[in-house]
Amino acid sequence: MTLPSAIPPLGERQKLLEMSGVDKVFNGDVVALKGMNLTVNQGDFISLLGPSGCGKSTALRLIAGLSRPTSGSIRWEGGQARGDLGVVFQEPTLMPWATVSQNVWLPFRLRGKGYREVRDEVLWALKMVGLEKFQNAYPRELSGGMKMRVSIARAMVTEPRLILMDEPFAALDEITRMKLNDDLLALREKIKCTVIFVTHSVYESVFLSDRIVVMAARPGRVSTELTVPTPYPRNEVFRTTPEYGALCRDTSDALHGAMHEHNEASA
After folding, report:
1. Residues 47, 113: one domain?
2. Which of 134, 159, 184 delimits the end of a domain?
3. Cβ contacts of residue 21 below 8 Å, gap of 6+?
4. Is residue 7 domain-resident?
5. Contact at 8 Å (CB) between 43 and 11?
6. For residue 138, what are the domain limits?
7. Same domain, 174 and 256
8. Is residue 232 part of a domain?
9. pLDDT in tens for each of the 267 residues of the chain?
10. Whole-structure pTM over 0.85, yes or no?
11. Contact at 8 Å (CB) between 151 and 93?
């Protein structure tokens, strides 16, 4: 695999896609998103942070093409090609009857490519997530964290321009979650991918992201955006620094402000 060059600093990145004035209404009267504007640049690690019901997952599904906006637009620079996206859901959604390598092969299989044809790519993806020795194991033989690694490998095996992650670590214990946060950043450092990551956790968003998009609910919309200026790579030492604590407080304040917007809108 030929990996991309280093990710440029914030402010020097080329635009990847843009959501402009996006509304999403369900059943005629449930407004999930209203006037959603978001620019995603190549190399960004963006966390969508907000309370339940603020439209984070809806925004992700719209970007993934799993749903269509009621109004507004989502435009990819240069157009969107097949394979531009990898998606990691909250549950690993692995096929229990298939081996680890067969699960990672799935995106290629859906395109009509045989396993032998893409075996090197599958093994490369498994190596990236530290599971090359488990290629012949079945999901029932794996821990929760290992299953999520397989899901991440499956999302990245086609080398997409953008990886969407919908609360992938929410169901895991705190120790496993922190370890996978560390591993995800190490993986991003290797493959230079663009990530949009949905989370409820202030601490997770600050640790992972260089941009945090805080959303208010009902209707779902962007309340504010914060940048995390701490350079990558980051590790467990970052979590113990005064800078991390200050950034978490600022993000928590922004989240409370977004929830206050929601309460005022509901009054």
Report:
1. no
2. 159
3. 35, 36, 37, 71, 72, 73
4. no
5. no
6. 94-159
7. yes
8. yes
9. 555 568 888 989 999 999 999 999 998 788 999 999 999 999 999 999 998 889 999 999 999 999 999 999 999 998 877 678 999 999 999 999 999 999 999 999 999 999 999 999 999 999 999 999 999 999 999 999 999 999 999 999 998 989 999 999 998 999 999 999 999 999 998 888 999 999 999 999 999 999 999 999 888 999 999 999 999 999 999 999 999 999 999 999 999 998 877 555 554
10. yes
11. yes
56 & 109 share domain: no
Pair 37, 222: CB distance under 8 Å: yes
Token pair listed for 10: 């914030």
Do residues 172 and 246 both lie within one domain? yes
Structural domain contains residue 155? yes
Residue 110: C-alpha distances to residues 90, 113, 115, 166, 227 (Å): 22, 7, 11, 22, 38
Read off the DSSP letter of residue 140.
G
Contact 176, 148 (CB under 8 A): no
Question: Strand, coil or helix: what is 223?
Answer: strand
CA 199 to CA 242: how far, in whole Å? Answer: 23
